[in-house]
Amino acid sequence: MVLFIVSEVMLFFAFFWAYFHSCLNPTVDLGCTWPPIGIIPMNPWGIPLLNTIILLTSGATVTWAHYGVIGGLRRQMIGGFLFTIILAAIFTGFQGYEYVHATFSISDSSYGSTFYMATGLHGFHVLVGTIFLAVCFGRHLSYHFTRSHHIGFECAIWYWHFVDVVWIFLFITIYWWGHGYPTDPALYADSILKY
C-alpha cells in the first residue's frame, strides 16, 4: 500500500509540475500573466476553503473510526465511518457544484487544463477512497474486523489521509497562491460577487 501511495504521489507531482511550469513562466499567448488574461479564477475563500474544512474533518472522523476498532467500540466505529462517508459525499457534491459554476473550462489555456486535471484527478481519488471506506464499512458490519485484524481498514485510512494531504497542496498552490488577480479589476469584482 505504501508503494501504491508513493506511485500516486508521483502522478500528482507531474500535474503540480505542469501547473508550476505554466504559472511561474507565463508565455506571451497567456498574456505574460498568471492567471491568463480572460480567466476569472475561483475565490479560494468560498467553496474551496469549505471543502478543505470538510476534507480535514473527514480525516479526523476516519481516525475516530480507527480508534473505535482498536478499542473494540463498535458504535464509535460506525459513527466515525458514517460521518466520513457523508463528509466525502458532501465534498464531492461541492466539487461538482464548483465545476458547473466555474467561469472557465478545461480548454481555456493551460490554466483550465491544469486546474481541471489536478482537481479532477483528486476528485476521482476521493470517489475511490469513498468506495474503499464504504466497502470497509460493510465488512465491519459483517464482523470482518477485530482489534488485531483490520489491515484492510488501515490501508483505507492511509489512502484517505493521502487524499487529505494532496488536497491541502491543491488548495495552497492552485486555489490560493495561483489565484492571483485578474488584470481587469471589474472581472475580479465579478468573481468575488459570484462566489
Provide a concise account of the structure shown.
This protein is mainly α. The chain has helices at residues 2-24, 47-71, 74-100, 109-141, 151-176, 185-194.
Q: What's the order of the H and E elements? A: HHHHHH
Low-confidence stretches: none
Per DSSP, the total helix count is: 6
Give the N-terminus to C-terminus distance in angstroms: 38 Å
- How does CATH name the architecture? Up-down Bundle
Specify the helix fraction band.
Answer: over 70%
At the first level of CATH, what is the class?
Mainly Alpha
In oligomeric terms, what are we looking at?
single chain
Name of the CATH homologous superfamily: Cytochrome c oxidase, subunit III, four-helix bundle
Name its key features.
Four Helix Bundle (Hemerythrin (Met), subunit A)
Fold and architecture overview:
- The chain is mainly α and 195 residues long.
- It has one domain (44-180): Cytochrome c oxidase, subunit III, four-helix bundle (Four Helix Bundle (Hemerythrin (Met), subunit A)), CATH 1.20.120.80.
- The chain is 74% helix and 0% strand.
- The protein has six helices and no strands.
- It has helices at 2-24, 47-71, 74-100, 109-141, 151-176, 185-194.
- Helix 4 (109-141) runs antiparallel to helix 5 (151-176).
- The relative contact order is 0.18.
